């Protein structure tokens, strides 16, 4: 990875310029991929590259010295490859069972009926908040204004309502 070739781009990305960050990641991708091919199993290369790019985009502003960018990125890739190897080893010894196969999926009419029953089973104040949020698309602030409660109360009520609906659907 030749840092001098795009040092200006690196500085701009470090400062928070999203265009420079996108260009930097696009330029770095091939070098990251080559490094991942050396350290990862064939199946994990693209996953390691993606994870590394995500981490670089999130943490670049925290990098103290831009001269360390290349080694920092390569450490991220190597760490991702090692993490995937550990996961692979852990999963390698497990037998494949039938419980990982998808179950029979009910048709749309059954889903609608189950969902309607779940909503009907909710107390009125929970049903109201779910319908306003998920069907009418009101924001948390709009819900608070309409219902005359705080945003924290809206969030708590919505969380409880969804949990109750999930519990009903599992039964």
Automatic annotation (TrEMBL):
Alphabetized UniProt keyword annotations:
Sigma factor, Transcription, Transcription regulation
Q: Does the keyword Disulfide bond apply?
A: no
Does Transcription regulation show up as a keyword for this record? yes
In terms of Pfam families, this protein maps to: Sigma70_r2, Sigma70_r4_2
Q: Which residue ranges does the record assign to the RNA polymerase sigma factor 70 region 4 type domain?
A: 113-163
Q: Where is the RNA polymerase sigma-70 region domain?
A: 27-86
Q: Record's InterPro entries? A: RNA_pol_sigma-70-like, RNA_pol_sigma-70_dom, RNA_pol_sigma70_r2, RNA_pol_sigma70_r4_t2, RNA_pol_sigma_r2, RNA_pol_sigma_r3/r4-like, WH-like_DNA-bd_sf
Q: Which family does it belong to?
A: Belongs to the sigma-70 factor family. ECF subfamily.
**UniProt name for this protein:** Sigma-70 family RNA polymerase sigma factor
Natural source organism: Luteimonas vadosa
């Amino acid at each position: 990875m030749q840092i001098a070739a795009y040092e200006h781009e690196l500085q701009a990305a470090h400062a928070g310029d999203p265009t420079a960050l996108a260009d930097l990641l696009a330029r770095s991708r091939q070098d990251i991929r080559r490094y991942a091919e050396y350290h990862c199993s064939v199946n994990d290369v693209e996953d390691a590259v993606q994870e590394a790019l995500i981490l670089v985009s999130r943490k670049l502003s925290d990098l103290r010295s831009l001269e360390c960018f290349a080694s920092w990125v390569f450490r991220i890739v190597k760490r991702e490859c090692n993490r995937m190897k550990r996961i692979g080893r852990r999963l390698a010894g497990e037998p494949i069972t039938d419980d990982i196969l998808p179950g029979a999926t009910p048709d749309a009419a059954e889903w609608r009926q189950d969902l309607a029953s779940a909503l009907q089973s909710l107390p009125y104040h929970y049903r109201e908040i779910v319908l306003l949020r998920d069907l009418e698309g009101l924001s948390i602030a709009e819900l608070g204004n309409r219902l005359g409660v705080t945003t924290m109360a809206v969030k708590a009520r919505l969380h409880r309502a969804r949990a109750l609906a999930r519990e009903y659907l599992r039964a």
